[in-house]
Amino acid sequence: MPGFTRLCTVLTPSFGATGATDAFLVAFLIPYTFYGVVGLALATVIVPLFAEYAAQGRREEAWRVMSLVVNAVLVGALMPSIVFMAMAGVFGGILNANNIFGPPAFGPAAMNLAIIFAALVGVWLLRLDELRYMVDLARDILRRRAGTAMPK
Fold first, then answer.
1. Which residue of 2, 52, 82, 137 has the smallest Cβ count within 10 Å?
2. How far is the C-alpha of 109 from the C-alpha of 105, rounded, in Å?
3. Which residues, other chains included, contact 38 with Cβ-Cβ below 8 Å and sequence gap of 6+?
4. What is the pLDDT of residue 142?
5. Rounded to 5 degrees, what are φ and ψ at 102?
């Protein structure tokens, strides 16, 4: 119902039945469909698994499994950033060719500030134990790949 309300009370009266409204609706539909297919499928699998681990008294292991799933989903969600960074390089080059140097020079700084902000929010949202587990897991994976001992 909120989607219908959004469409009827905000989008259509504001923008009318135009190509811009259609473009917005199509652009909105793609991630929403992804959420419906992948997100709900993951929830259908993960929630019973989490509940089973928790019922067996393996709550810490349940949270570790959940963290791994969340990380895998985040990696998949961040893959489009490669496309956007490539586009930023192309558009930055076009701006530089037109003697516009400020925005392309500020872009990497803005991206780094956004990453720092997101990391700080993520650390705040995650429990420290889960963060330590992810760091230890990453360290173990790197050790196995390198075949060498890494300092703890």
1. 2
2. 8
3. 73
4. 75
5. -65, -60
Report d(CA 90, CA 105) in Å as an integer: 13
Measure the CA–CA gap between 135 and 142, rounded to whole angstroms: 11
Contact predicate 21/11, CB 8 Å: yes
3-state SS class at 76 = helix
- Which residues are CB-contacts of 88 (< 8 A; sequence separation ≥ 6)? 107
pTM of model > 0.70: no
Tell me the C-alpha to C-alpha distance, in Å, between residue 46 and each of 71, 72, 74, 107, 131.
13, 13, 15, 38, 20
The span from the CA of 107 to the CA of 119, in Å, is: 18
What's the average pLDDT block by block, 10 residues per block, for the chain (152 residues)? 62 70 75 73 79 86 81 73 79 87 85 75 65 72 67 56
Phi then psi dihedrals of residue 77, to 5 deg? -70, -30
3-class SS of residue 48 = helix
